[in-house]
Amino acid sequence: MSANNTKLSISVEINARRQLLAFQKEHKLNSLSSAVSLILKNYFQEIQGQEPAQEVAPTADSELINILSKRLDELGERLAVVEAQLRHSRSSDATKIIESLQITQSLKQPQDATYGSGEAADLYLGWEVPANISYVFNRYQSLNTDEAKAAFADKWISLCANSLETALVVCYSLLSLVKDNQMYQTSHWMEGYKTYTSFKNYFEHRFESLLEKWSQMELVHKFVVENCPQILEAMLRSQSIELSKNGSVDVVIAQQVASPTTHNQPQTRLELSKVESTEETPPVSIETIDQIQTSEAVEHKLEQLEKELSQEPPQPEIILMTTSEVSQFSGLTTGQLNRYKHRGTLPIEVSVEGVKYRVDYAKKGEQGRNLWSVQSLEAKEKQQQQQQQQEYSSASMQSVTEAASIATQTTAQESITPILTQTALSERLDVPRSTFRRKKNQMSEAEFAEWTSSNDPDGIAWAYSEELKQYYVCT
């Protein structure tokens, strides 16, 4: 083999490069590759005829490498089986799943600008966690059916779980070698020639960032478990605004969910530092998801209430609603309703379109859902007055007036202190929400109460409850 016809791609240190240049000049060679080829040729000629090296007995390290190699081969075979099964499906979703899996084996970066645009799409093997995570998530969003999305998620979770298992085996097996041989103290064995005084320092250096990310993931998971039903309901309510005829209630809810400056609904903001513990905020049951109703169902309840209020006397007086229906009707979140229930602060009074309603927990429904009673205080007061008038129809006008006055006072004593959201109170005071928030943040409690009293149509002073995240009447 001619030295000049062999080309090698090499990377050498500066000192070795100088020696190669000297060797090249001495032997009048055309290139460094020719110099390296000639040196290797001379070396192979020297070792010819020597006795072959004795076979080295297998060690723990070599056995570990063989196990890991077999493990990787098994993962590759399992992935091939998955792809073969998916190919039998003729749906476009199956094709997208196959393409997303193939992208990790073909060692190619995604060419479609829609996926991974502006991201670093590193090359990775099929058994590894994908470096271009945005590509996988975009592929997930492009699927058309829930069944396809579920299959896609399950396959990628399986791949990532297998990758994590392999990574743990590699890390903890090789860590024992580093520890037993104190390799962390030898500079030319360590990356960047960096040494460590102890194995503890080496371990913390390698895994500190990973443990921080893992801790953050656990916080995110805890937040989602405790608040996902409320967030999901809020998203569904905001998306159904245009379909609802009850515009004022839904618009208030949508503004509380969509506005980035609204601070009276902490459940809709992902602030990990402010996540409440499970002891302070009981987690919402998963049944809440099943209780989500469309705005048409709530609209039907409203029409039923309006129809009953127009009758003389109103029949029936109390309407039963599920938790999600009460939330959408009143503007309170399901989390707030559950807190009222667990803390024993029911019933409460809410105002919807200028009409006051009394909300209380009623019972468990037939399907295990929580049912709430919604009662119009105006209808109740009107019915009580009519009953008083019928009982004292033979009395004088003065007696009837006194009886009506007594009934009104009794109703006022029995009613609960009104509780309003920030948006509802700002509308009641007829001031912009931005002005309302600025006044609330700048003023003391006494100044805020005086300011709200001067703007309230009935001269009522209001205060803010940090516990309930709502505004109540100052007593």
Describe what this molecule looks like in 3D.
- This protein is 56% helix and 8% strand.
- By secondary structure, it is an alpha+beta fold.
- Among the domains are: 3-45, no CATH class; 61-183, no CATH class; 417-475, no CATH class.
- Strands 1-4-3-2 form a four-stranded antiparallel beta sheet. Strands 5-7-6 form a three-stranded antiparallel beta sheet.
- A hairpin with a 5-residue loop joins strand 3 and strand 4 (370-376).
- Helix 3 (60-87) runs antiparallel to helix 6 (146-180) and helix 7 (199-239) packs antiparallel against helix 8 (247-258).
- The longest helix is centred in the middle third of the chain and has 41 residues, at 199-239.
The count of helical stretches stands at 17
Coarse morphology: elongated
Q: Largest beta sheet, briefly?
A: 4 strands, antiparallel
Distance between the termini: 102 Å
Unreliable spans are 1-13, 102-129, 242-295, 393-397, 406-417
Mean pLDDT: 64
Order of helices and strands: HHHHHHHHHHEHHEEEHHEHHHEE
How many strands appear in the DSSP assignment? 7
**Strand-pairing-aware structural class:** alpha+beta
